[in-house]
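A reminder from the course coordinator: this example appears on the midterm review sheet, so study it carefully.

Given structure:
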């Protein structure tokens, strides 16, 4: 079980050396919280290109629309834990740094409380798989960024290999098998005949390498 922050008692510690949560660690490093730094940064004139200004403006509109739509349909709550208390971050599944081309895709944005946001960005299988939205996020990642999808597969496999006695082992193993092993993927070359195969299929691997088929179609 993770230690609690030595300053505020928060459950999620990001600096294990000083035993501090994200906000308290920001205060230690910069003398102010992350939100105070963001407010200070936004108050200063930014030296950015006109193209980036347009993108930033559009991203703000997308995020505002997501929040408004969720408020109107009564689903304004954290996608990670279900809580509707406090501020919710608009968090990208595939980060802007990694996939700037997807930053305006509403499907790439979750509403997350600060604790769940930290969990998602941790790339820690125990923390990430505790999120309600984890399976859905992985499905989006599978469709939009197979490299990132395979990286998560490797991360979870490594954790399972090294933590067989851990309390959460069975839970993570079940999630891992459901996402990466048990779900059949329909090869587009065989869809009409209703054939299914695994991504490990030798025939599919050969055909995919030659560019003849896509084993991760948009619909399965």
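Designed residues:
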């Amino acid at each position: 079980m993770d230690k609690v922050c030595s300053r505020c008692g928060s459950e999620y510690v990001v600096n294990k050396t000083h035993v501090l949560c994200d906000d308290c660690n920001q205060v230690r490093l910069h003398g102010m919280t992350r939100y105070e730094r963001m407010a200070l940064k936004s108050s200063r004139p930014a030296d950015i290109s006109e193209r980036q200004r347009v993108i930033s403006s559009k991203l703000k509109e997308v995020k505002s629309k997501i929040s408004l739509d969720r408020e109107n349909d009564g689903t304004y709550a954290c996608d990670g834990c279900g809580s509707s208390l406090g501020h919710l971050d608009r968090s990208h599944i595939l980060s802007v740094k990694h996939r700037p081309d997807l930053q305006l895709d509403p499907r790439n944005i979750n509403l997350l409380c600060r604790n769940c946001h930290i969990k998602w960005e941790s790339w820690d299988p125990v923390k990430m798989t505790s999120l309600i939205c984890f399976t859905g996020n992985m499905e989006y990642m599978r469709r939009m960024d197979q490299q990132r999808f395979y990286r998560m597969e490797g991360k979870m496999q490594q954790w399972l290999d090294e933590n067989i006695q851990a309390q959460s082992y069975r839970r993570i193993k079940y999630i891992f098998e459901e996402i990466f092993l048990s779900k059949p993927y329909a090869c587009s070359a065989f869809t009409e005949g209703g054939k299914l195969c695994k991504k490990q299929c030798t025939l599919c691997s050969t055909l995919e390498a030659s560019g003849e088929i896509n084993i991760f179609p948009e619909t399965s």
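Strands lie at 89-92, 109-112. Residues 184-220 form one domain.
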